Amino acid sequence: MECAGGSSVLNLEALSELLSKQQEEEEDEDWKQSVSACAQMGPGHIGHPPKHDAEVSSADSKRSSKDIWSEEEVAEGSQYEDLTDPRPQPEYEIILKQSVKPEDLFLGLSRKDPSSMCCEAMLVKIKLPETKATDVFLDVKETFLDLRTTKYKLGLHLPHSVHSQEGKARFFSEQEELEVTLPMKRPMDFINMQ
């Protein structure tokens, strides 16, 4: 019986060893399969799948094959930015203005408040030392102001849309300062001021 028991212990150890080797081999195979699946992925697998030719929108078909950006993607005034131009930017200040009458101030009849939502115009003060009025080139777009002199260059993205054709500019030679007054576009006035 001892002999049979001893052999049964040996048999159990051999069986245990056989099963553990088989389990290790299965784990190795599973690991190899997961590694090979990951190895097949590349940078192109990240994100949404690419569009096929049939899925190209009509807006993309209007663009030339050499275009990088559409006109909507380019900020207004970016054509004036020249990084190789060594002229410094002058000091400037933007002031929002509103016309207030006594009935607005004391009685509050027009529902105006000191916020920028109630402002009607934008005043841009630009200091131009050692500059004459004849040296100033000024171009105003809806959201961009371009000022150039022999000594200074300013490309200013305006914080609000303006009526560029209705603006006024005055040069004060005593203070060596240019003041540009631009009426603001206020598309929400029919909601805000009623």
TrEMBL record:
Any single biological process term in GO: flagellated sperm motility
InterPro entries, alphabetized: DNAAF6, PIH1D1/2/3_CS-like
Gene designation: dnaaf6
One Pfam family it belongs to: PIH1_CS
PANTHER family, A to Z: DYNEIN AXONEMAL ASSEMBLY FACTOR 6, TWISTER
UniProt family annotation: Belongs to the PIH1 family.
Region feature (Disordered): 19-87
GO cellular component: cytoplasm
Domain PIH1D1/2/3 CS-like: 89-184
Natural source organism: Austrofundulus limnaeus
Name of protein: Dynein axonemal assembly factor 6 isoform X1
GO molecular function list: dynein intermediate chain binding; protein-folding chaperone binding
Ranges of compositional bias, category Basic and acidic residues: 50-69
